[in-house]
Design goal:
Largest sheet: none
Helix content: over 70%
Number of domains: 2
Number of strands: 0
Radius of gyration: 17 Å
Shape: globular
Order of helices and strands: HHHHHHHHHHH
Strand content: under 5%
Structural class: mainly alpha
Distance between the termini: 57 Å
Length: 169
């Protein structure tokens, strides 16, 4: 076994041992519900696990479980699958600011009718930065879809925190 592989495996084990979120979830569930595998194959646990292991030995699945365990609990896998499956259509709808794919995306995120326009405007602004990056054209479809997914939930989480603080204040 190579030295790099041993160090990587030790790192994964250390993350699991010292991470409270990772300990609260069955280890097998992390590989099927989190990371790139869950994004690519949300409805096929076997493919999700194999993808996570072959992509990066499962470190993305483990780190997503640690850094954002809520994304692994379900529900968001539908959004991830939708973004992956219809990325090109979403790209066009985001460019124009409207469209059925963009409407579906906002519905999947649970964005209420009052906040949809604000969400779409914020998403378009952030997505413009992603598309404007010089490395964008070199990214794979998966990488582009993952970037959009991350933007969507960054904004959704930010919006729900703002709403919570507004009602508390």
């Amino acid at each position: 076994m190579s030295k790099v592989m041993k160090i990587s495996i030790l790192g994964v084990v250390a993350l699991c041992v010292y991470s409270q979120p990772a300990m609260s979830r069955e280890f097998a569930d992390i590989y099927t519900e989190c990371g790139i595998g869950a994004m690519i194959a949300p409805r096929n646990e076997t493919v999700a696990a194999i993808t996570n292991v072959t992509w990066d030995w499962g470190t993305t699945a483990i780190s997503s479980n640690i850094s954002s365990p809520d994304t692994c609990k379900g529900g968001q896998e539908k959004t991830a699958a939708f973004i992956h499956d219809s990325y090109e259509h979403l790209e066009k709808d985001l460019a124009s600011g409207h469209g059925t794919y963009l409407d579906t995306l906002t519905a999947l995120t649970g964005c209420d009718a009052n906040g949809q326009q604000e969400f779409v405007e914020a998403l378009r602004l952030e997505f413009t930065k992603v598309v404007g990056d010089s490395s964008y054209t070199d990214k794979s479809r998966l990488e582009k879809a993952e970037a959009l997914y991350n933007l969507v939930y960054k904004l959704v989480d930010g919006h729900s925190q703002e709403s919570g603080s507004a009602s508390n204040g």
